[in-house]
Fold these 2 entries.
Entry 1:
Amino acid sequence: MNTFARLRGVWRDRTPNILPPRHFRCLPRDLVAIAVSLPFMAVSANSLAAEAGGFASCLERLRPDAMAKGVSAATFDAQTAALAPDMTVIGFLDAQPEFVTPIWDYLAALVDEERVADGREMLSHWELVLGRVEKAYDVDRATVVAVWGVESNFGRNFGTRPLLTSLSTLSCFGRRQDYFRGEFFTTLKIIQEGHVAPERLTGSWAGAFGHTQFMPSTFMRLAVDFDGDGRRDLVDSVPDALASTANFLRRAGWRNDLPWGFEVALPAGFDTAVAGRRNRQPMHDWAARGLRRVDGGDLPPGATPAALLLPAGEGGPAFLVTRNFDALYSYNAAESYALAIAHLSDRLRGGGPFATPWPTDDAGLSRAERRELQQLLIERGFDIGEPDGIIGSRTREALQMVQREFGLTADGRAGQKTLRALRQPR
Ligand code: CA
């Protein structure tokens, strides 16, 4: 089962409607590698001028709509006076992932030792705030910190695109202009209400911003002022961000008396047709079918609804997941994403890696290993920029060349086999 194939589908989850379609959110930026269609990357001077003219008249048309949504004339005029469109965001809107990322690559980078160590440090540093957040929203601290770690690498990576530029462009060009106009007007209201200063509002191409990477509309519904300064600030207030994440999960149905789920062992000959996040069965039914915890222990007693997940199909790790997994899923509609958060939260609580290996003989790389691989490519003379751990097109092209040289499958994928080969002295 390829969870990533479904990422490109439209949003159709039954959990509360608090997020836009998945493809308007960004993958965690550590993993971003999508092809932006070339026409938007190489616009001519003529088309730029035409776009600028179209953009100015578009903003004029949007002005009364913005007023109707509660944006003042003063705010609109002040914040749009110097705006120019950024057509590269339209390329992202239409981009498809360059290739399918295997789940073991996705998790190797999102739940690596570095993020576990950073997360434990954050748990300790923000202990008092997290204790208060836990009490106020009844969402456990390891889960809140895991979301933070995956969304913005604990506040280190918010995205650098000015929200007003991206969202005004998406309001005037490309698909889904109505949706993005709502986000644009909401961004103006966030500024008007003084929550976040406009120059601090940078984020993903689609407008997700801050520690929690909320879209502006999600901010309006779910962000909270937890440090008591009267502003809901998801950019410069960690307490506001942690509490807002907990509030999101709470509203998405989180129940602190349940685990998100756990790894299970399937009995021999098990019919995996019953797998799927939406096929919830009482826990005792799964026990009756012969499922056990992966350490051999019995499943929890009772009728708690749970679903069986097989993220890599048969032969890989299997999980029973509860409604809490769905709450994580609603943060960013991908099962691989929810599993990364869930697994990171377990690791932060002291848990170990999954017991069942992924069905591959070429495991994925941590971010440290990705940087090492890039450094080794640079030492071989490849011009791939800084070793930042992000596997982009230049790194992949270089990988294909060395993979051919090594007699490995020349797919440009950064895996353990290629790293091991690169480590060999020449
Ligand atoms: Ca605040």
Entry 2:
Amino acid sequence: MSVLKLYEYPDEVLRQKCDKITAVDDELRHFLDDMLETMYVDKGCGLAAPQVGCTKRMIVVDPNPSDEDLSARRPMYLINPEIIWHSEETVFFNEGCLSLPDQRADVERFEKVRVRYIDYNGIEREILADDLLAIILQHEIDHLDGILYIDHLSRLKRTRLLHKLEKYREDCKRNK
Ligand code: NI
């Protein structure tokens, strides 16, 4: 497995609407494995294909991406994931994104979602997700339509966050 290059805001690839996948083959599985490896290395709990420069509808998630206890990991691969039902209730969750390093903000999401997807072996499945998994799935599926979590914020909050991101990047450069 190899670690893929991560694309960050404001890269255009993050704004593309991704294409449906028509065949699950070894090449695709290999790419999914690389995505998962990249997610763990960068300490994320979800990663969508456009974040590694690929505009196809696939995501990897793990609500418990533990480094200490590898047996606690629960990786999931979702191809062509689609929200087919959501609860009326919503919750706020403090989200981050590997494409906007070091930033977080409260985002309103549905409390529960039912997602239909194709798994690693090409089999169609459904999952009813709640808690953290429901949040991650909504965040990652958004990526496949070119939507970032900052798009759910008020203009003021988004502008503030992007200023902080700019400052963070300047600090990183300075400390190199
Ligand atoms: Ni993200």
